[in-house]
Amino acid sequence: MNDTLQYSSNLRGKIISSISDINLDSLQEVINTNFGDDSAKITDFQISENQSSNGYTAIIELNYKTQLLNTYPKSLFLKFCRQDKRFIKDSEYFYYKRDYLGLKDAPLPKCYDASFSKTEDSYHVLLENLSQTHYSNKEIRPTRHHAMSVAEELAKLHAYRWGNKVSELHTDTNTSEQIECFIEHTSTGLLPILTTVKSDLPQDWIKNIEKVFDVHPQMMQKKANNLAGMTLIHGDTNPSNILSPNEPNGKTYIIDRQPFKWSLTYWLGVYDLAYMIIPYWSVIDRRALEEVMLKHYHQSLLKFGVNDYSWEECREDYRLCIVHGIYTAIEWGTNEKNIVEMRWLWQAQLKRSMEAFTDWRCNEFLK
Q1: Helices and strands, counts by H and E, the chain
Q2: Residue 74 needs a FRET pair 20 to 30 A away by CA distance; which of 140, 308, 334, 359 works?
Q3: What ranges do the domains of the chain cover?
């Protein structure tokens, strides 16, 4: 990828890096391009801006000259990310514009416009606004209905890029190098985290966490040599990135694929399930729902065309990925500020992960 590389689907390649970049002409161009005519005239618009943890977002309300059919959006969701060396910048652009192109009924919001520039080290995506019809899973307690719905939508994405079906994307499939980078980064948080919680956790937990970093990376490397179970993953399926419908029979969406440069991007599909469940769900909810969710995920893979992946393999891969809950908690220790300010989160994640580690007898890995 050269330094001048730029991708764009609209707006003549311009990257939105501020709400001041948005004007009536640019919004009209988006509508005309997406709907193939110029009959829907925008008279004015309003913007509500927010700063998210890893970018900037805004809701753009559109007012048209005449009453229009529901096919035309009344509002849009804008996300733009300025210069930040931590992220793989083109990932979210490709998530909406390339990686699942052709997948019928993909669990992704409609993307009306997107641009990425390596030169500017920034990108934007302009999506349909789902805030009135959907809610984030961040503040809810998971139910069986939620679990089954997300499992099926993840399986749909994973099956579409299963095994060597990613070769056409020219994406990074060197999982061995990704694992090395992932472990090298995450392991720097091990000593600070364990030093902080050494008196709050059982000593056998402390010893097992230390052993995980000695043994588990080798198991990951061994698995990386086998295409079974491997796919293009989302990588950050935390509850904030899952949107559930207000209507019981509505569609579930999976949003916001913005991986760090040390993140895993081509790995076991069940990682996305484990990452969503282990660090974020209570132990009670996990024990009640994870097995049925995992089973439905596997059944959905079969439905979507994966025919070389047994239930036994799926279950063992999930067991291998449970340890990623520990990595998630330990990674907070790579930033001194987060050790203090985010302790309320990472300590809970570590405890939940160790409960799962025990339930699934993952200590057998360490032998």
Answers
A1: 12, 11
A2: 140
A3: 6-128, 136-366
CA distance 136 to 48: 18
Whole-number Å distance between alpha carbons of 247 and 133: 8
| Interval 121-177: pLDDT, tens | 889 999 999 999 999 999 899 999 999 999 999 999 999 999 989 988 888 889 999
Instruction: Report CA torsion sign: 167, 172, 174, 175.
Output: negative
The answer to whether 78 and 18 have CB atoms below 8 angstroms apart is no
Model pTM above 0.85: yes
Vertex 50, ends 48 and 55: CA angle to 5°?
135
Asked if 189 contacts 334 with a C-beta cutoff of 8 angstroms, the reply is yes
Q: Give the pLDDT of residue 49.
A: 87
| Spatial CA neighbour of 247 closest among 154, 149, 152, 156 | 149
Cα–Cα nearest to 154, from 280, 287, 299, 289:
299
- What is the DSSP secondary structure assignment for residue 200, as one 8-state letter? T
Give the separation between CA 1 and CA 172, rounded to whole angstroms: 12
3-class SS of residue 19 = helix
What pLDDT does 4 receive? 37
**How many other C-beta atoms can be found within 10 angstroms of the C-beta atom of residue 225?**
9
- Span 6-128: which CATH code? 3.30.200
Runs of H (alpha helix) within 11-102: 24-35, 90-97
- Interval 37-84: pLDDT, tens: 777 899 999 999 886 666 789 999 999 987 766 789 999 999 998 767
Cα–Cα dist 211/357, whole Å: 13
SS (HEC) of 101-161: CCCCCCCCCCEEEEEEECCCCEEEEEEECCCCCEEEHHHCCCCHHHHHHHHHHHHHHHHHC
**Measured distance CA(356)–CA(279) in Å, rounded:** 9
Any long-range contacts for 170-174 (C-beta under 8 Å, 24+ apart)?
171/94, 171/99, 171/232, 171/265, 171/266, 172/265, 172/266, 173/266, 174/266
